[in-house]
User: Fold this.
Amino acid sequence: MHYTFLYLDPGSGSYVLQVIIAAILGGLMFFKNFWLKVKSFFIKPKVKQEDAEEPEQPAS
Amino acid sequence: MQLIPGTEKYPASYRDRDGFIFKYNNQFYRCINKTYFSQYQHLMDSGLYDLLVKKKWLIAHEEVKDKPEWNSEEYRVIYPQQIAYVSYPYEWSFEMWKDAALLTLDIALTAMEKGMLLKDATPFNIQFVQGKPVFIDTLSFELYDAAKPWIAYRQFCECFIAPLLLQKYADASMNHFFQLYPNGIPLQLVQELLPAKAKWNVHNYMHVYLQGKIKTSKRNASTAQQPFSKPKMLLLLNGLHGYVKKMQVKPAKTIWDDYYTDTILSKQYLDEKAKLVQSLLKKIPFQTVIDLGANDGYFSLLLKDKASAIVSADSDVNCINQLYLKIKNEKISNILPVVSALHTPSPSIGWHHTERMNFTERFKGDVVLALALVHHLAIANNVPLEMIAQWFAALGNYLLVEFVPKTDDKVKQLLQYRQDIFDDYHSTGFEKAFGNYFDILTKATVPGTERILYLAKKR
Assistant:
């Protein structure tokens, strides 16, 4: 087995990787949000109901 | 820098040029070097320190003011909250690892809001205090530069993601593997150890497999000049957080799953033994307990209101995982679960063998509890009774030990397929061997069995 990371400095070595990962995650996030929007378009009432229940107000 | 006279630098504290830990009058202090003054000031002035301490995520400290010689233009000293029992990552179970990883990311995300970031990401920066993970390295924070990526990213992958994945995909006992690679498990090795299916998870692929591909690419130089940004950093840290949070370990059967339901080891036996243990322990004064062979923590939990601190050690990682989840859910603050094979307890490791202390150095208590343990050490692992007594004597002043005789089903099982070479394994031999190190105060038979409990005091 070759441990080729041995001479890779931790900062710059993972630099490129982090740029790529951020891009992938950004893409995933975009599609996730897109999907959620599509989903909420079809099942709107349920989502709204949950939201409406959240703020708890003391009964007066 | 020059060490303050009369102090002793802690051997694990050599990596950081910004400061180090030292011992003075048996207490731990942290020295901050001039190179870190401005960042330390930002940590304190930005409100980040107060916020993290309030959440109990970061260890609290006081600035030492009553020793003028400890504060100069070159350095200053802080006195952190002291930790009774130190555990190391290779002694944590999966859920402990996971909580430690999540804490590291939570702290990094919170620090970003206050203009700082973590400059390293090692589980050695975390200790379990009052049942919860706490970040102990006050000097790990650096000023955040949005144009730069996370300097500790690869360390996080090697020190948290790698061990978590090995525990998840290979075996829960792979937590011990970190003992061989305390500075991080090489990701290429992890790739070879993980099953092929692991590659098909996009997060596994990004954080473990992709690293090998990137280093061979020739685009590095040009891409490295693109500035990073805060949104990218948030994507990375939040992405890691969601990824770790969803990780689950295979639900495993513990070795002891059927232990208490088997034959004589019934509820009745357990109740009788619990009563006996409680009445025997009333005879002695104690604050701290080292529960060896703690199993799922039954007896540790029984004593939680009577002791200030309990260390529950067992070799079964799944038992310890269950115990950790229990103390986490029930907010029990004085039990520290520890995974360690007691026939070969955690050694001294690291630079000059002094960086990480061994089991015996760290876990000393007022009373050592060794219930249904001696037969495993003596018969399953061939440790002579006298040597067992010697080790117990190194751990505590009092001992509550159970002797399980050869007539017991459990010992019969251990001897079933092997030659009985244990001529002195009987109560008289036991008393003789333990008599070399302890004075036996009381002995009592567990009703309905031939098992004997001994309460003893170290000579």
